[in-house]
Write a structure and sequence with these properties.
By secondary structure, the chain is α/β, with parallel strands linked by helices. It has twelve helices and six strands. A six-stranded mixed sheet has the order 1-2-3-4-5-6, covered by helices on one side. The relative contact order is 0.06. Keywords: Membrane, Transmembrane, Transmembrane helix.
Length: 390
């Protein structure tokens, strides 16, 4: 179909590969309109001596058939014309030529009277070739020549003259066919080049992202481990508190690699404080939050990290110094995105974050002692599955 895009608008590569020759474009439509105007002028000028109403009616009908065939082609904006449409366009074109030729009277016949008609047929059939239907165009041209010979014999100008009026369309069809056959693979080649360019760009982006991530990890490793390694190299004797800090730094660096989805300054600070008190904290990441994790403060990833910080903060306000907290981001496709299981002293609860942003909290059958209320973003709901009035 024709496009409403302005001339100065950028052309997308998909549009270029779909319609390589600009068929149906505003420029081509304007050119055909100009040709139609010249067609009418030449036909009227060449047939000025014709006084037969039936002849002018036939010439008008032939012109209408040409316009209908051209309109069908311009309405179709893809690169390959459907066979049924190609057959219909070819039939209308041959019918337009035959109607015009057979109506020309012998006494006022001029070769110039046939030129616009043959030119219109040649243009339309050449476009059929460019629409990847050369067989239809050639069959139509041969049928037009045969019918023109018959019409020449019927009108008295002779079959040779009648057929000869269509001869000059064949060189044009030969060139159009050769050009079409050479250019037909070009859209596929352009599409292949585009896909290769996209693949290369994606690969380069992934490589750059991986390199950036490695540099970030190395910088954090350097900042955390270098002072300790330098102390070890200098023969420093570590005290109990220093040894604890070394183990906490090791666990923190392991969390960055093993659970990047939980990585944030707030989570890191809260986990450090709880681990320092003796509570075991395990952070696991199987990737379910990757597609939800954005910079939006209400994203599922930020919601899960905020809930984990709140759970750890509620534990930090108690005197518990043993137990475990397991925070896991589940694999993609599960009904739950992330779960946090707290088993520290009297605190026993399981908090789950779901894909729709809802948060559920499960308490043990005996009621347990809940921690601080779990906060949820404005786009979330908290479903408590047990009574917390105990």
């Amino acid at each position: 179909m024709t496009s409403d895009r302005r001339e100065d608008d950028p052309i997308d590569l998909d549009e270029t590969t779909v319609n390589l020759f600009g068929l149906g474009s505003p420029l081509l439509i304007r050119a055909l309109v100009i040709f139609a105007g010249i067609y009418v002028i030449v036909v009227i000028g060449a047939g000025w001596q014709i006084r037969s109403v039936a002849t002018w009616a036939a010439l008008t009908a032939g012109f209408v058939l040409f316009v209908a065939a051209a309109a069908m082609l311009m309405h179709y904006g893809r690169s390959t014309l459907p066979r049924r449409t190609a057959a219909l366009v070819t039939t209308l074109t041959v019918a337009g030529l035959t109607t015009s030729f057979w109506s020309l009277p012998l006494d006022t016949y001029l070769t110039l009277q046939t030129t616009p008609v043959t030119s219109a047929m040649t243009i339309i059939l050449a476009m059929v070739v460019l629409y990847r239907r050369p067989c239809f165009a050639w069959v139509g041209a041969l049928c037009a020549t045969g019918l023109s010979a018959v019409g020449g014999e019927l009108t008295g100008i002779g079959y040779a003259v009648g057929a000869g009026n269509t001869v000059f369309c064949y060189p044009v069809l030969v060139l159009a066919t050769l050009f079409g056959l050479m250019a037909i693979p070009m859209p596929d080649r352009l599409r292949s080049l585009r896909e290769q360019a996209f693949a290369q760009a994606a690969e380069e982006a992934a490589t750059a992202a991986a390199a950036s991530e490695r540099r970030s990890q190395l910088q954090r490793l350097d900042a955390g481990a270098r002072p300790i390694l330098e102390q070890i190299a200098d023969g420093h004797a570590f005290g109990l508190d220093e040894a604890l800090d070394v183990r906490l730094i090791e666990a923190q660096l392991r969390d960055i690699i093993r659970a990047p989805g939980w990585d944030s300054p707030e989570v890191s600070t809260s986990v450090w404080a709880i681990r320092r008190r003796g509570v075991s904290v395990r952070l696991l990441d199987d990737g379910a939050l990757d597609e939800y994790d954005t910079d939006d403060k209400h994203s599922r990833g930020n919601l899960a990290r905020r809930i984990l910080v709140e759970e750890l903060t509620s534990l930090d306000a108690t005197t518990a110094d043993q137990g475990s907290v397991t925070a896991r981001i589940l694999p993609a496709g599960r009904e739950v995105l992330a779960s946090i299981v707290v088993d520290v002293g009297p605190h026993l609860r399981r908090v789950e974050v779901h894909p729709d942003g809802s948060v559920t909290t499960d308490l043990p059958p005996d009621g347990g002692v809940p921690g601080a209320p779990t906060g949820a973003g404005p786009d979330t709901t908290v479903a408590e599955t047990a009574d917390q009035d105990c």
